[in-house]
Amino acid sequence: MTENWHIQQEKASILLIYTGGTIGMIENPETGTLESFNFQHLKDNMPELKKLGYTVSSFQFDPPMDSSEMGPDCWKQLVEIIAGNYQQYDGFVILHGTDTMAYTASALSFMLENLSKPVILTGSQLPIGMLRTDGKENLITAIEIAAAKENGMPVTPEVCIFFENDLLRGNRTRKINADNFNAFRSYNYPPLAHAGIYIKYDTTQIYHSASRRPLKPHYLLDRNIAILKLFPGLSSLVVESILNIPGLKGVVMETFGSGNAPKDEWLLTMLRDAVDRGIVIVNITQCVGGCVEMHRYETGHKLQEAGVISGYDSTTESAVTKLMFLFGHGLTSKEVKEHMNCSLIGEVTIPDKLM
Ligand code: ASP
Asked: Which of 2, 19, 22, 100 is flagged as catalytic?
């Protein structure tokens, strides 16, 4: 990892967008459940914010939400807020529930074309008002990362997730633990920075948009996407009903190992039939790390013959939101397949021999 200890922290202005999540929740004394609370509560519990030396402005979702309720409408709202305030701020920090943070980060990475400023998502496993909260450190470090500049340029001009100690590329990240503070991993891409005493950036891994064009916000997403997760004993009725959903355009099929599925003729026939009807079926492994290689086993090869395309080492979160984004922009199935076969914003590693 490159050790850039001397990255200059110039006085910066940060827009903090509070969407909700555990970080700002309080316990309902009657039911004992955690419920969303307003931003004032969060600020009251974070006097440290004032000491940071940056100009931190805030925007609050009203009402704040549990991230299980996030979806394309909220992603559009986030893009609108970032695009509408893009010139005024050096970086953006989004406070978000952890449950769907990886989906939001993936979606934003596609929707914010030509991004040249940091957009850092963070949250916490324990509310900020609790003694053992992980929220304070996560928030303060996320703000520092969003503010970090080197030679006047932002250090991490991409959509990232900061959690516990690591800064991860948003569209490579998954939530892997429901209660550990260390809840996120990016198994197929190295961390962009590690926060200990110093924040050490691995600048060789950070994505810089090749285009010098202004930010191009995108708002169109198509929800006609499904996830089909294989398991031993999966019934043909389940597959049939998913592949025949009216209006369905894309399917992320979660397969075994390096992209394998049973060779059952009924399954291959249903998949082939769906592909012939223009449905794009993307093969993603159920494993947390590694890559789909459909040529490796006969069971994977049969899928390829049926017209299923490889998702390589994409996360499910990235593949789902990429399909929503591509179909949302009116691309044909053929065009969607072509775009799934290349990296738009560092979300996937395409094997050299295909490039
Ligand atoms: N249910 C919460 C949410 O995703 C969990 C969290 O924030 O950690 O909004």
From this structure: 22
